[in-house]
Amino acid sequence: MEFLSDSVVLSRMQFAFTAIFHILWPVLTTGMGIYLVIIEGVWLRTRNPDYYLHARFWSKFYVLNFGIGVATGIPMEFQFGTNWSPFSEAVGNFFGSVIGFEASWAFMLEAAFLGIMLFGWERVNPAIHYLSTILVAVGANLSTLWILTANSWMQTPAGGELVNGKFVVHDYFQAILNPFMVNSVLHMFFATLETSLFVIGGISAWYILQRRNTAFFSKSLKITLAAAIAVAPLQIYIGHLSGEQVYHYQPTKLAAMEAQWESSPAGKPADWSLLAIPNAKAEKNDWEITIPNALGYILEFKQNLSQPLRGLKEWKPEDRPKMVGLIYYAFRIMIGIGFFFAGLMLLSTLQWLRGKLSADNISQQRWLMWGWVFAAPLGYIAVESGWIVRCVGRQPWVLYGQIRTADGASNLPASNVLVSLSAFAIVYSVLFIAALYFGSRIIRTGPNLDLPIPGVEITKPAVDTTPAEFVPDERPVEAQQ
Predict the structure, then answer these.
(1) What predicted TM-score, i.e. pTM, was given to this entire model?
(2) Helix (H, G, I), strand (E, B), or coil: what is residue 404?
(3) A Pfam family name for this chain (predicted)?
(4) Among 143, 197, 381, 447, which is most exposed with the fewest C-beta within 10 angstroms?
(5) Distances from the Cα of 245 to the Cαs of 251, 300, 320, 383, 411, in angstroms?
(6) What string of pLDDT tens digits covers the 481 residues of the chain?
């Protein structure tokens, strides 16, 4: 329990906890925003009321995730001033402005048009409403752009240099377009989209298994499947490109990802570790299953390595990532989920081509529907695993190769950080329970299929204007008084 007296470790734990919790919510809003743009666009083009009802139903999940995402995202940025003030002071010339772009460009745009998207269906012109939906989606994805730009710069700092402990920017655009930036943004963009598609598909599959509104939810499942046909393979390919960049720019991280203790020379093949039990103390793997000569094919699509693959032993223990086992298995979990998504997409596409996903017989594909239900939470696990690899693998550097994590942390009493970490744990647990409650209530209630459709007049029964026949009062005169 020595870590309880180490403020640096506690600050890292606090940031990791808040980041792991926060990322759960924008993952869905950024991807689902694009889905809502597609679904509303199809409704405007076809005027099929089902697509309008889909847009109204799925937007409920959007606003739920948006609210919690905002509430949990702001404290993360505050931590750069509270727990990581030396880092913020050193790199604020660039890092601070990029984080500011995320708030002013992305969050403000998203928040400004969210009300119109949610409540303007019968109050504004359909074109204006659709524009609002597009701008909300753009805002959500601009957030991904700037956050990944900032984090990529921490991974591969560019565009300036440290002078007397402060980062001086020489080329702002070079700093933005650092070596990791493009692939990192694309990898996260497709991760959010893929996660959202399989969440929507999983919820739709659950309704189909329950035989509730089968025809309605077969549409949303097939829309997500059509998008996944492109997204799932692209995500695997972009993930490979990101791995190649780690190979060239962050050799210590790659060695930890592969639990590679010994170096492999250039011009020779290298074995790939499929499963292993890394032992950092003994600097070896206690047990492993390897695939001979496979690592070159994974990294470069050829057997022999074009450059040396350095093992962890080439660095001093204080210069290499800790928790090698966590990095190693988080990487494999992320890869495994990516290939599972691709496999589920392929099987579902085959069944679709065979005519098995029509509204009449889709409920008979129970094994396939359960596959989609099982896939619904996996995207979150893959995203969390990817961020673990990305950030834990960067250690011991907060700015890779230039500022150590220990030097970037604020000098705070450990007891103070422990109190704030405990408070975050309590509040976020309440938020998580509330999200599960309201999310499950949305699912239990289901879509409101009786909503009035904009532009469609409701037919009212005609008023009978035929004069009524006069009936004389036959009661006694005394009773009529």
Answers:
(1) 0.90
(2) strand
(3) Cyt_bd_oxida_I
(4) 381
(5) 9, 11, 18, 18, 34
(6) 666 778 999 999 999 999 999 999 999 999 999 999 999 999 999 999 999 999 999 999 999 999 898 889 888 888 998 999 999 999 988 998 898 888 888 888 888 898 999 898 888 898 999 999 999 999 999 999 999 999 999 999 999 999 988 999 999 999 999 999 999 999 999 999 999 999 999 999 999 999 999 999 999 999 999 999 999 999 999 999 999 999 999 999 999 999 999 988 888 888 898 999 999 888 899 999 999 888 888 888 888 888 888 999 999 999 999 899 999 999 999 999 999 999 999 999 999 999 888 888 888 889 999 999 999 999 999 999 999 999 999 999 999 999 999 999 999 999 999 999 999 999 999 999 999 999 999 999 999 888 888 876 555 555 555 565 656 666 665 555 5
Cα–Cα distance, 169 to 126 (Å, whole number):
45
Cis peptide, bond prior to residue 396, ω within 30 of zero: yes
Would you state the structure tokens that stand for residue 394, as one six-digit string?
């960067």
What is the residue whose two structure tokens read 């025809």?
Answer: 215
Q: Which two tokens stand for residue 303?
A: 């057997």
DSSP calls for 148-164: HHHHHHHHS--SEEEET
* Inter-residue contact 296 to 302 (CB < 8 Å): yes
Determine which helix (DSSP H) or strand (DSSP E) holds 45, and give its type and residue range: helix 24-46
Helix (H, G, I), strand (E, B) or coil at 308: coil
Helices 49-82/414-445 angle, 10° precision: 180
Query: Which token pair is 342?
Result: 């691709």
CA separation for the pair 451, 48 (Å, rounded): 13
Q: Which residue type does 51 have?
A: Y
Residue pair 4/69 in contact (Cβ under 8 Å)? The answer is no
Burial zone of 229 (CB within 10 Å; 0-12 exposed, 13-18 middle, 19+ buried): middle
Number of CB atoms found within 10 A of residue 322's CB = 14
How far is residue 137 from each of residues 26, 132, 226, measured CA to CA in Å?
11, 9, 20
List alpha helices for 260-410, DSSP H. 295-300, 324-353, 366-375, 378-392, 405-408
Token readout for 389 is: 């690899």
- Yes or no: say if 363 and 216 are a contact pair by the CB < 8 Å rule: no
